[in-house]
Design a protein that fits this description.
The structure holds two protein chains of two kinds.
Chain A (H helix, E strand, L loop, with lengths): L12 H17 L5 E2 L12 H10 L6 E3 L11 H10 L12 E4 L24 E5 L1 E4 L8 E4 L7 E6 L4 H11 L6 E6 L2 E5 L4 E2 L6
Parallel strand pairs in A: 2-3, 3-4, 4-8
Antiparallel strand pairs in A: 1-9, 5-7, 6-7, 6-10, 8-9
Helix pairs in contact in A: 1-2
Chain B lengths: L15 H11 L2 H10 L6 E18 L4 E17 L8 E7 L3 H14 L2 H32 L15
Antiparallel strand pairs in B: 1-2, 2-3
Helix pairs in contact in B: 1-3, 1-4, 2-3
The chains are: A alpha/beta, B alpha+beta.
């Protein structure tokens, strides 16, 4: 049996995924704002509850997903693979340059942002959306790794800090914003909370790390 | 009555599980409900995938070369559930059922899970699977007979007057 110990998906697939999608829309239209994704789903290791909810909402048989290769969870027989195959039916893509979505459960091992697909000039929307799991997301300007963000959807600036992102991330993000309208979009996840960082988000100052 | 009810049915000619899944999918809901009432100690279960209705494209082959064509779409209901118990007592049941009957899909998945439990399997084969196999073989036999009665054979007469 390959489906041993499979976890259930959404209790109510239609309304749950609509609710999660609405929260994600809020998060991406107000970058830097921490939004709650209320989800009481069981999550396959190593996903956080909100990552699981996003997977169930966003992924289907047409969306290629890239998983971090250097972890035991990327084994084709792992709980995560079987969960995604069963509930989302999505193909797993070994190449991060062609994937529509990337799930980074271990932010420390995040590959360079330019290894993801920034979209084409004709179709900038075909870029990779990268979901990154971090810890201790806060809107606190005084936190040690805080950065200030500005751009569409942010009234003045938004302060954001989290634990787990490698320090090169925001440097690479600067390069990412320079290729606008191309570029990747990032969703930061901490437990049941998400922050949207679309490619329009500019870094106000260098982070003080 | 055929001696081996499933020997002419390619779907029922594979593993035991494939055979009972096919039988459960073709069974009537009332048959399954009746069988479930007879089961004592029905296991608790959680739905991995609630019964959901979708479409499946039916494909056929035609012509001398076996060209594929789309015959049409059919409604299909599928369900997956897991019985709750300690590890060996926990089984995953899956069903794909023609039509739009959610209850049928759920019952078929539940029986699929129970049939994988060796402690229940033999009893369930006696009370349910064997009778489903007999009923469906009879229905199939009846339909084949009715169809065979209307068969028309086409002959091509060899005239033999053109050529050496």
């Amino acid at each position: 049996m390959t489906s041993d110990n499979l976890l259930p998906g959404f209790a109510d697939p239609v309304f749950d995924s609509q609710r999660v999608f609405r929260s994600l829309l809020e998060a991406l239209s107000h970058p830097g704002t921490i939004c709650d994704i209320a989800s009481d789903n069981a999550s396959p290791t190593p996903l956080m509850p909100a990552t699981t909810a996003l997977c169930l909402t966003l992924l289907d048989f047409e969306s290629r997903v890239w998983l971090q290769p250097e972890c035991p969870a990327s084994n084709a027989d792992s709980a995560l693979h079987r969960y995604l195959r069963f509930h989302c039916g999505c193909p797993i893509d070994a190449d991060s340059r062609t994937a529509h979505f990337a799930i980074v459960h271990d932010a420390q091992a995040l590959p360079s942002l330019n290894t993801f697909h920034p979209g084409d000039t004709e179709f900038p929307d075909r870029s990779t959306t990268v979901i990154i799991q971090v810890n201790n997301l806060v809107n606190d300007a005084t936190a040690q790794s805080a950065v200030r963000l500005r751009g569409p959807g942010i009234r003045t600036t938004a302060s954001l800090a989290c634990v787990g992102l490698p320090s090169r991330f925001w440097q690479e993000w600067r390069e990412n914003t320079e290729q606008f309208p191309l570029g990747i979009d990032v969703i930061l996840v901490d437990g049941k909370r998400v922050v949207g960082i679309p490619r329009t988000v500019q870094l106000e100052t260098q982070s003080c790390m | 009555m055929l001696s081996n009810p499933d020997s002419d049915n390619p779907l029922c000619n594979k593993t035991p599980r494939q055979r009972w899944m096919a039988l459960l999918a073709r069974a009537g809901v009332d048959e399954l409900e009746r069988a479930l009432r007879a089961v004592d100690n029905i296991p608790k279960y959680e739905l991995l995938r609630r019964p959901e209705i979708g479409l499946a494209m039916l494909r056929g082959r035609t012509g001398g070369t076996g060209h594929q064509f789309n015959l049409g779409e059919a409604s299909v209901t599928r369900c997956a559930l897991r019985t709750l118990g300690t590890h060996p007592g926990s089984y995953t049941g899956v069903s794909y059922v023609l039509g739009r009957d959610r209850r049928h899909a759920e019952l078929a998945a539940l029986f699929d899970a129970m049939l994988q439990d060796e402690e229940r399997s033999i009893a369930l084969h006696h009370t349910l699977i064997d009778s489903l196999a007999a009923t469906q073989a009879n229905q199939r036999h009846d339909r084949s007979r009715k169809a065979a009665a209307t068969r028309v054979d086409f002959y091509t007469m060899v005239r033999g007057d053109n050529g050496a």
